[in-house]
Amino acid sequence: MSGATGEKKIDLLITGVGGQGAILASDIIGKAAVISGLPIRAAETHGMAQRGGSVVNHIRLGTDLGSMIPKKGADIMLALEPMEAVRYLDFLKDGGVIIVNTQPIIPVTVTSGIAKYPDVQEILDVLSEKYVVKAFNADELAYEAGNRLAMNVAMVGAVSSYLPIPKEALLEGVKALVPQKTIEINVRAFEMGRKKVEES
Q1: Long-range contacts of 182-186 (CB under 8 A, 24+ apart)
Q2: What's the CA gap between 1 and 37, in Å, rounded?
Q3: Where are the domains of the chain?
Q4: DSSP letters along 93-112, please?
Q5: How far apart are CA 145 and CA 193, in angstroms?
């Protein structure tokens, strides 16, 4: 599906929790867009990426509009954490695609008993009512690839077949931006994430 439809305009929202690597994921896609000569606008909005804080990256491919995606404007959401998918649903258009990592990060309010973290399957069921949901545990997948920290790259792999960017350019972005000694693991995580979504 590498943009064969001629559809080159994609608005992608990447959400996650500080420390998960949402920013690196968006940098990889940004670099790949530049490599493949596709116009890109990107913006970050977050309560700075302190661990546990919410991180959101707006990525607009093939457009010269502003860098922020309007409400109901995103074609795809890449959610590195299930509750973060729910938190930013207003940005996704009806029928949009959500690729979600099913591994929750339990906030401190939950561990201290103030709040309850919803059941992940319930979250997915609610999302599936209005959106196309591709869900898998990217932490486990990255662990299989050789390092849990490659989770964000597994998620980039998962979204890759929806992007109007050649896979080769994305892999070039991965190789350029991850630590040198982790390239092999990250490439493997990317391939596994891509395969996971293509199979589902």
Answers
A1: 182/147, 182/149, 182/150, 184/146, 185/145, 185/146, 185/147, 185/150, 186/145, 186/150, 186/153
A2: 18
A3: 10-100+127-199
A4: EEEEEEEEE------HHHHT
A5: 10
Q: Return the closest-CA partner of residue 200 out of 98, 81, 82.
A: 98
Is the CB of residue 12 less than 8 Å from the CB of residue 163? Answer: yes
Closest CA to 86 of 45, 55, 127, 121: 127
Q: Are strands 132-136 and 92-101 parallel, antiparallel or unpaired?
A: parallel
Q: pLDDT (tens digit, 0 to 9) for every residue of the chain, 200 residues total?
A: 343 445 589 999 999 998 899 999 999 999 999 999 999 999 988 655 456 688 999 999 998 888 999 999 999 999 999 999 999 999 999 999 999 999 999 877 787 888 889 999 999 999 999 999 999 999 999 999 999 999 999 999 999 999 999 999 999 999 999 999 999 999 999 999 999 999 97
- CATH 3.40.50.720 is right for the domain spanning 10-100+127-199: no
Query: Across the strands, what pairs with 60?
Result: 11, 41
| Whether 33 contacts 165, CB under 8 Å | yes
